[in-house]
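Late entry, evening session. Most of the bench is empty. Finally got around to the prediction I had been postponing all week. Sequence below, unchanged from the version circulated by S.P.
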Amino acid sequence: MNRRPTGDLARTATGSDLILTRSFRASAEDVWASITEPERTARWFGPWEGDAAPGRTIRVRLAFEDQAPWSDMRIDACDPPRRLALSATDEFGAWRIELLLTETDGSTRLEFVQHLDSEEQLGEIGPGWEYYLDMLVASRDGSPKPDFDSYYPAMKPYFTDLAARS
């Protein structure tokens, strides 16, 4: 299946923000559960363990990555059911992400934001987040799980060019 990239790039005073959105016919509380409850995150990203609270670090299993490694993620902010901010550092650098929910008339818009220090890896990062957000959609509506091969490398040129266009 050919998928279309949806990401956008916004320049900020401190770098750039990669922004992707998805909409759900559900309450913000229900979508919030999909992005915060470990048995539900396991369906599209991976399970997590630990004592979750702002300022604390949880362990997240990247269940759909090669060898499904565990990674530490710090909870920078948690304002249910509106905002979750996480950060992590790994061999690829620092990851600072936010998940923002807005409910209107029974539908909830999820805005995923990754705060970037550099746009160098955008061609690799963007397709990955498109994949994970479509995994979230599939986990909620029961549609077939997407295949990562439909995202990478097919979407790499879009995200590489995004930096030049913005």
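Two things to note before I forget:
The first helix runs from residue 28 to 36.
Strands lie at 8-12, 15-24, 48-49, 57-61, 70-79, 83-90, 93-104, 107-116.
Will write this up properly tomorrow.
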